[in-house]
Design a protein that fits this description.
This protein has 6 helices and 8 strands. It has 200 residues and is of the alpha/beta class. The chain has a 6-stranded mixed β-sheet with strand order 2-5-4-3-7-8, with helices on both faces. A two-stranded antiparallel sheet has the order 1-6. Strand 4, helix 4 and strand 5 form a beta-alpha-beta unit.
């Protein structure tokens, strides 16, 4: 399926479903800068209040990603895999920021991993600034290429995708859309898992 068609279907799915579903890597824009690469969903999420630190965005390898997770040992960590070209990801991202603000004092942190192309890093950073995402923000060195989905074990090459790590740095649970059923990720499932991990 051509990338533009897949992207349009992704946006249409947002309007038809209450909860976001997901975008495959086919929806990623080509590496050459185009109008599609910076297209935003019709309804932009409202930036959360409270965060004041300007977000930073670091391009990383899988090894550097593991170092970031290890650095947060002792905390519960939720990693949000997303991209600016993925409408459901943009719709879900404020929930990640909200969780970070709600539970940071209890030993929780969010980490974001963008699958935008490194050449489009500025677009990703602009979105992070809009959302006031004052936690670790990473961008995969291989962007939306298959290598990224394989390296970070993202099933079916579909985002948004979430990984929850316990205080010992071990993976507790993953969350992915059910593309076949057209079902997105339920935020309540993530909330419940985060609270359970913090209680341990």
């Amino acid at each position: 399926m051509p990338r533009l068609s897949c992207l349009l279907l992704c946006f249409i799915a947002i309007g038809l479903a209450t909860l976001p579903s997901g975008c495959s890597q086919e929806a990623a824009p080509p590496k050459e800068p185009t109008a599609v690469a910076t297209t935003k969903p019709a309804v932009e999420p409202t930036p959360p209040e409270g965060n004041t630190e300007p977000p930073l965005l670091e391009v990383v390898t899988p090894e550097q990603y593991k170092e970031v997770i290890a650095r947060h040992k002792g905390k519960v960590v939720l990693v949000d895999f997303w991209a600016t070209w993925c409408g459901p990801c943009r719709k879900f991202f404020p929930h990640t920021v909200e969780l970070h603000e709600k539970f940071a004092a209890k030993g929780f942190t969010a980490v974001s991993m963008s699958f935008d192309d490194p050449d489009n890093k500025d677009d990703a950073l602009a979105f992070l600034k809009e959302q006031r995402a004052s936690f670790d923000n990473l961008l995969s060195k291989t962007g939306a290429e298959s290598e990224s989905y394989t390296a970070y074990e993202v099933p079916n090459e579909v985002i948004p995708h979430f990984k929850l790590y316990g205080r010992d740095g071990q993976l507790l649970k993953s969350f992915s859309p059910d593309v076949a059923a057209g079902k997105g990720i339920d935020p309540a499932d993530i909330d419940q898992a985060v609270e359970a991990a913090l209680a341990n």
